[in-house]
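Margin note: ligand = zinc ion.
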Amino acid sequence: MTQPRAYKTRAVVLRGRVLGEADRIFTLFTAERGKLDAVAKGVRRAKSHLAGRLEFGNECQFGLHRGRSLDVIVSADIVTAHWERLVDPQRFAVFSLVAEVIDALCEPDQPLPEVYALLTGMLGAIAATDEPLALVPRFSLRLLDLLGIAPPVSRCVLCDLPLEERGYVDAQAGGIIGESCRERWRDLLALDEEDLENLRAVAARKGARARVRATPRVARAVEEVLAHHLGRRPKAGAACSEFVTP
Ligand SMILES: [Zn+2]
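Resulting structure:
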């Protein structure tokens, strides 16, 4: 099946980088095709009709043209612009983290409509709240779940036995381990019963059991599991941690 050269899609701007004298490459997260890179030609010239529309975090209806290597952005009409709210340093740091993690964990050209819904929902929530950092653990766990790599929250990630009243965060194993799998010499973050219950609520799909706010230990646990999947700490994580009150 040949695909039409011109197409329309809704997408969020995850990042942009300079290309040559006047162009920019944008990483977009689209509703239909997931992540994709597209070039905006002449966008760095003042009279470009695209200038000002492709701000970080904007959700636009895009007109694109399939190119040989990169698709070309022909038009962009803003659907939702959170820019005025996102310039706040803490909101900016949290959205940078969201964009970085989605960019790092999602393969290009893979349709992920639920991730798109999570991303746009998260943008709205970041813009609306005065405590954007509190949204990060649940966002991270929901994203890992939608990508099929969420840690089990009721069972030991190594032996699959139910977690009893204590669990230990084993980032190398990618999740929580139980007492019997823990090697005593390893200094692992311990989660008590209340933390484990909170972890389940923060990880839960929408519904009565779901909760947004993580306990401090659960927030750290999620951070470690996320870093394990990224293979590093997120770059935007440093900016976020400036806002953590000890
Ligand atoms: Zn175990």
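The pocket of zinc ion is lined by residues 156, 158-159, 161, 177-178, 180-181 (CB under 6 Å).
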